[in-house]
Write a structure and sequence with these properties.
Number of helices: 5
Helix content: over 70%
Structural class: mainly alpha
Number of strands: 0
Shape: rod-shaped
Largest sheet: none
Low-confidence stretches: none
Length: 164
C-alpha cells in the first residue's frame, strides 16, 4: 500500500486540531464537575456532623428537662420563670430545636416528621398528657428523633460518598 504523505500530514494535523480543541473543553468540564462534587460533599459532611451534634444535644436536653419537669407541679410557665437553672435549660433546648429546624428541608417527608417530633416533645414538656410519666413519653419521642435522624444522616452520607 502506498499512502500519499500529504494525506497522512492532513490526518495528523486534523487529529492534533481536534485534540487541541476537545482537550481543554473536556478538562474544563471535568474540573467543574470535581469542584461541584468536592464543594457539595464537604458542605454536606459539615451538615451531617453539625446535625449529629445537635440531635445528640437535643435528646440530652429533652431528657434532662423531662426529669426536672416530672418533679414539678403547677403551671409550667410560672415554674420556669421562677427557677433560673430551669429557665436556662429550657432556653437551651428551644435554641437547639430552632437550629435543627433551620437545617431541615421542609420539602422532605422525614424532615417534616423530625420537626413534628421535636414540637411534640416541647408540647409534652409544657403540658404533659395524662396517663404516662413525662419521662417515658419524652424518652419515646427521643428514640423517635434518634431513629429518624439516623435515617436522614445515612441518606446524606450516601450522597456524600457518591459526590453529590
Amino acid at each position: 500500500m502506498n499512502f500519499n504523505p500529504q494525506w497522512i500530514t492532513l490526518v495528523v494535523a486534523c487529529t492534533a486540531m481536534i485534540a487541541s480543541i476537545a482537550g481543554p473543553y473536556v478538562n474544563t468540564r471535568i474540573a467543574k464537575f470535581q469542584f461541584r462534587a468536592n464543594v457539595l460533599s464537604v458542605n454536606r459532611q459539615k451538615w451531617i456532623e453539625t446535625m449529629r451534634d445537635l440531635v445528640a444535644s437535643l435528646n440530652s436536653q429533652f431528657l434532662a428537662a423531662a426529669a426536672i419537669r416530672e418533679t414539678l407541679d403547677g403551671p409550667t410557665g410560672t415554674i420556669i420563670a421562677r427557677d433560673p437553672e430551669l429557665f436556662n435549660r429550657v432556653e437551651s433546648l428551644l435554641r437547639t430545636v430552632s437550629k435543627i429546624e433551620l437545617m431541615l428541608n421542609p420539602l422532605e417527608r422525614d424532615h417534616r416528621e423530625l420537626n413534628a417530633l421535636m414540637k411534640e416533645g416541647i408540647d409534652h414538656l409544657r403540658a404533659p398528657p395524662p396517663g404516662h410519666t413525662i419521662e417515658a413519653q419524652i424518652e419515646e419521642i427521643s428514640n423517635g428523633i434518634t431513629h429518624l435522624s439516623q435515617e436522614i444522616l445515612k441518606r446524606e452520607w450516601i450522597r456524600v460518598k457518591r459526590g453529590e
